[in-house]
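Schema walkthrough. Field components (list of strings):
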Amino acid sequence: MTVTIVNLKVNGVDQAFMARPGTTLLLALREQLGLTGAKRGCAQGACGSCTVLLDGAPVVSCLVPATTVDGADIATVEGLADGQQLSDVQQAFLDGFATQCGFCTPGMLMSAEALLARNPDPTADEVNEAISGNVCRCTGYAPIVSAILDAAERRRNRVEATH
Amino acid sequence: MAKINPIDPDYFKDERAAPGFKVIGTTVPRSDALGHVTGRTEFFEDRTFPNLAHLKIHRSPHHHALIDSVDTSHAEQTPGVLRVLTYKDVPANWYGVLRLIGIGPDDEPVLAEDRVIYKGEPIVAVVADSEAAALEGASRVRVSYTELPAVLDVEEAMSPDAPIIKRAGTNYFVYEGHHSRRIRFGDVEAGFARADHVFDWRYSSAPIEHAPTETTGCIVVPQSNGRLLIHSNTQAAFFTLDNTALIINRAPTDLQVKGGTVGGGFGGKVDVMVEPLACIAATLTNRPVKFVYTREEEMQVSSPRAAERIYIKDGVLSDGRIVARKIMLYVDAGAYARHSPYGATKAAAHLPGPYTIPNVHADCHCVYTNRTPSSAMRGFGVTIADFAIESQMDRIARALDLDPLEFRLRNAYRDGDLKAHRKVASGTALIEVIQRAAELVGHELPEEYRAMSSTTPRGAQA
Amino acid sequence: MTLLRGRGYASVNYPTGMNLGGDPSQAIIHATTMGGFVVTLSSVDLGQGLKTVVAQCAAETLGIPMENVIIDTADTDTGPHCMGTFASRGTHRVGNAVIMAAREAREVMLQVAADELEVDAGDLETDGTGFVRLKGSPATKIHISDIALAAHFKQGKSISGRGIFLKERSYPVPETGEMDPDSCQAHACTVAEVEVDDETGIVTVLRMYNTYEIGRALNPAMVAQQVEGGAWMGVSHAIFESTEPYYPASRAHGPIDFCEYLMPGPAEIPVQTSVILERPASNGPFGAKGIGEMTANAPIPAIANAIFDACGVRLTTMPFTPESVLRGLDALRAA
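Field assembly_structure (string):
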């Protein structure tokens, strides 16, 4: 079986792993790099629990062949916080009681981070669209949408404060 | 910031007086939230083990069939396959999860023996080095069948000429000699005779999936002292341990369950479906074994919320008092009992809903059909019954031109009322939630209805 | 095309716990050397927040800060028995067990403190910030870390407690169904407002007004999580969900993924307005009742009744799909 060595950046750190044919980015992250934040909820690309950022864009990592990410820049939930300092989205989820079982949370956070990176002032509809591929079975979504809008406001306030 | 719903202090003022709580009643942060937002919360599948083996299942494609032969030779020769398990490898293959509380019979095989009675029933388990090899091995199992007629309707299953699909001899769970869990309270026929109006309608539902974002699964790790450590997302650690020990015929002290952090349950993770086979596989291979449902298995093979069919016949006086309610309720348990006999009893205890009705007759059937076994799910026995009861209430109110809330308030149960299962009601508050909801939406209630109270005995208030 | 609006009502009760064979849960609490209190359980948190709410029960009863409470749960080697997380039993059963264990541990803690302060234990109180102090003389006090150290290394006492809550078994009488299966009842009333598209049959749930009577709100933000998340599931059950779309006639067309198994996404959720009432249960932990399951129930009939109010179609089979709405409208026109 041909094994490919994949070099990439994960959360800003150079990493490498050996990819067998058929291995997905999700399994490489979880089983080879020890980054278990991204979850396997369906392995069909339909629940969003495995969402990570691939060169800044949200992808369902369970559908990304591991061999295709050589040279890529991957961001996962483990890289969001700066030491103890949570990102605005993380803090807003925490403060807003936007988590229950927590299984969808890492994927939700990554979809939200991607949205705010490209659109710092989203409407509720834009938030709804951004997380439309992320299934949550516990919360009813409303606290998640509120938390993302809250995070956007926090980020804008921070940017204003530094200008 | 977190949304908090207002607590109305004007209701049950005396009873709810709080004696100087410091922590209770305050919004303290969730202790698990930091782990959730940083991705550090450890779910069962977040543990990795060297040499981990994977277990996958070959399942029945038929609703009902005799198994003529099973050929596992191709599966065994599949590269990466370590072991193939059939029912012969399961020490106590027939089980029922409720035997722990004395409910029998043991009606379900862990792996099918001479027949399958639902599509998706497990027949052979394949253990392999990788998930892919286990799936490949499972696909290479060859089973030949003789198909039998399937029973897919609860009332057809109950009819005398239906093929019997259960080895116990009836297509329904037997409740101490009865074909249903029954409620007999007052004289329902006398109630109908006295009624000014009689309404008789039917309600039904289709099966519903729990759809937790994390599928059911476990990893079983053989320990150096010979014990088995089970990392599981079960909703009930000891329930899983005890049932697993009985199935694999090991001392309960040989097993240890670790869990407690679950990606959603909703009742779908109390059936003990994955742990016994993973334990057997771990023992036979002496390797850690993971058995986790695919999303497809979770949706079509794991127990759903039971479909139900409910007939409600009500006798009502012209002033809106319900004087008789007769209910025929059918829970579609699917092929095996699991928790459904319990669910039908829960339904019986719930009837006739939160209303005080002097004459109640209910037959709650737990019926077997050739479909995926149903089991516990959030509110089972109650959720679908509430759909039926509250639809019925709306229809009667409209038929008699009564205000829908006044009609409910008139019949609402109160402290001191004797419920149909002969338990005296206490701590009731149906009247108050209706009154407060009416206020919330500006639905005006006459003074007579605003003055009602759950704590005022029925006789003292008209 | 016309968008038809309607309002529907439903009111329900829901039992806390469901027992036939005896329904227990246990808790064990012990103090660590520096005054941490470990609550050991085998109970499972499904995401509803059990770990948090039982920590609150422990902190309140012990009279110590939340930070001093450690929840250690769901290891069958260390945690005492719990029946499991289902039947809206977790907060009620485990909360009660934790309170009982905490009372026993508190008694030892106060006795150790009394011996250190050379006062009578009956004259002591906790202040909730970590001190045990003399009633009426708050300057006479000792911190729980000093109490724990004294217990361990000086007095040789184990600050610990055992708790169990058992709902005793109740077998139904076969002939009549007489039984005592539950511990208390919570209540809910839902008013749903829907819009029905008479061309597509699509039902949109616009708003839900809910009142819930839950005994005692132990953690108000987590109450909001449970009631609103549960009401969402009710909406989902009502208008979307089934593993067998053509039940019972056909077993075919069963969904196998989240593209086929439909649930309301964030753009399809109603605005929820909820009000909480408290009628504490005499047997509940601080009066709390179990509400985890109930919250999904009232929305379903409320939506069915609202659909009828909107368009005159009485749907008696769940879920209320566009197809069933359109067939109902056709039948009305034909009549």
